[in-house]
Design brief:
The protein is of the alpha/beta class. It has ten helices and five strands, in the order E-H-E-H-E-H-E-H-E-H-H-H-H-H-H. The chain is 52% helix and 12% strand. A five-stranded parallel β-sheet has the order 2-1-3-4-5, sandwiched between helices. Strand 4, helix 4 and strand 5 form a beta-alpha-beta unit. The longest helix has 15 residues.
């Protein structure tokens, strides 16, 4: 059972999302709130597997809530579900440690797939958002940073993490075991001085590592 905590200030949408998720096999909403004012306490009490949150909420908004949770739970999957698809909001969320970025017009069945993907270690994005990310990557100055002494295989694994691959997908793509993937990722974290996938991806963006 995948336990989800939902943050959405629109009461009707919050209720509809709760009904959708609770009505699907192997999914359960263990908490639903209108803002992130008490997100750290709620996370500690409810122990969710995935957090699904809006960005624009009264009180403590989604970006602020994301930063609060990330500081204490670096590996907890957090998906942003929002109407915003502009570069500023997308990259603010990514830099703050979001594991995925979905638009509210995402079809219900795809939303459930994306929640499971995040739970399994992936980084789902609505296709229009993914295109923006790739376009902005393409506009970055060339020249990769080698100061962290990543091996070629570690760079390959980091690139796949940036592309949103789960551990299982990485293993299948480069023909290694999941245990070997975990070993590479542990070494990547040590070399980059990070503690989570989202931190590693953010550092890869910022320092042009891939």
């Amino acid at each position: 059972m995948i336990r989800i905590v939902l943050y959405e200030d629109n009461t009707k949408l919050r209720e509809n999302l709760t009904l959708l998720i609770d009505g699907a096999p192997d999914y359960s909403v263990c908490g639903a709130y209108k803002n992130c004012d008490h997100i750290l306490q709620q996370t500690a009490e409810l122990l969710p597997d995935v957090i699904l949150m809006d960005i624009d909420m009264p009180g403590t908004n989604g970006i602020e809530g994301l930063r609060i949770v990330r500081a204490h739970h670096p590996d907890l999957p957090i998906l942003m579900l929002t109407v915003f698809d502009d570069n500023q909001h997308v990259f603010e969320a990514i830099k703050a440690g979001a594991d995925g970025y979905l638009l509210k017009k995402t079809p219900p069945e795809k939303l459930l797939e994306h929640i499971r993907e995040a739970f399994e270690g992936g980084a789902p994005m609505t296709s229009s958002i993914a295109r923006q990310v790739l376009q902005l990557f393409a506009r970055q100055p060339s020249g990769k940073n080698d100061r962290y002494n990543l091996s070629e295989r570690e760079k390959e694994v980091l690139q796949l993490l940036v592309n949103g691959y789960s551990y299982k997908m990485i293993a299948a793509d480069i023909f290694i075991s999941i245990d070997t993937v975990r070993s590479h990722i542990k070494k990547i974290y040590e070399k980059l001085h990070v503690n989570s996938k989202s931190e590693a991806v953010a550092k890869a963006f910022r320092d042009k590592l891939v």
